[in-house]
Known about the structure:
Blueprint: H1 4-29, H2 33-53, H3 57-81, H4 97-117, H5 131-139, H6 143-170
Amino acid sequence: MTEPASLLAWIAFVCLVAVTVGSAVLVVTLRNLFHAVLALIASLLGVAGLYLMLLAEFVAAIHVLIYVGAVATLFLFVIMLTVRIDDAALRQSNRQVIPAIALCGAGLALLLAALLAAPWTPVEEIRPPGVQQIGHDMLTTYLLPFEVVSLLLLVALVGAVTLARREDQRT
């Protein structure tokens, strides 16, 4: 790692990891939901930057469009449109912090054990598929799973509209 380009890549990687992990920690520790969603957006953008470093431009673009553009914006609208979000009667803390920490620690231990036990072999340089290849595969090889997922999303959308209409009729 003596070349300036690899040193610069290492510095960029460390910065992206710091932004991603730091903002992910903020997501779960901030008490203000609006600020937590902003930290989530920063974390998702950090992950997109890591995808770019892996030369997966298509995955990075889709990640930004779907997660940052749609999901995080939806979270922000839900927070802003919820009437009772700051109500004092609503409990704002979680009583299951200790079990959650224990579960996360156990999961981390399992992951580390699996990583250390796995046989790691060096791989030749892999060129990721381009957008054209991904589009071709989506509409030929993976057409059935693609259609099943779109049908599932349509059913979820119809269910959400049905539940929202029932709530409107009750009020």
